[in-house]
Design goal:
Layout: H1 2-17, H2 30-46, H3 56-67, H4 85-95, H5 98-104, H6 106-125, H7 131-153, H8 157-181
Helix pairs in contact: 6-7, 7-8
Length: 189
Amino acid sequence: MVWTIGISIMWLRAHFKLPLQGQPETPKGWRAVILLADAMNTELPNSDIDVHALKDAKVKDMVRERLRGGTVRFDAPLTREEYSFRSGIYGWVKSNTLGKRAYRNKWWIAAFCLAAVPLVILLIYGVYVRPIGVFLIAISSCVILGVAFALGIGSTTRSRLFVTSLWIMTGLVVFIGVCASGVLKKYQD
């Protein structure tokens, strides 16, 4: 657990201190081509290389000779001077899409909270040794676990319903097993 927390903190610190802060991403695709072309347009005239008047082989030789291959810079600061771990975490949470995710999964979160209600009622009234109490404990806890796992591993509504239904079936099997074993008879009034 300590190792996991330590690695997570190291990742966050590196994420906030590495290059590309304020940049959308590492250049690739068309953006990389445009940045490369811009760098070449800047360096070639300064080295008296006219690409329109020379053949490819000659341009290649002159770039190797005069520019030593050329340089392409990406002007992103290497570190943030104003960076602090607390402000970094605050910015990450603020810019993260947690609110959008919660809104998108509102029905799953509602099912999670609704499944917790019978458990709270059972704890308050203490009827968990009766068959109805065991049934509610088994189903409620399995719905809570099912929804938690479904939100973690399911990406579509069908996959989440499937995972949740597997957990509900597990709860039913546990309930039937407990009732069939006769364990409840010795605890009943």
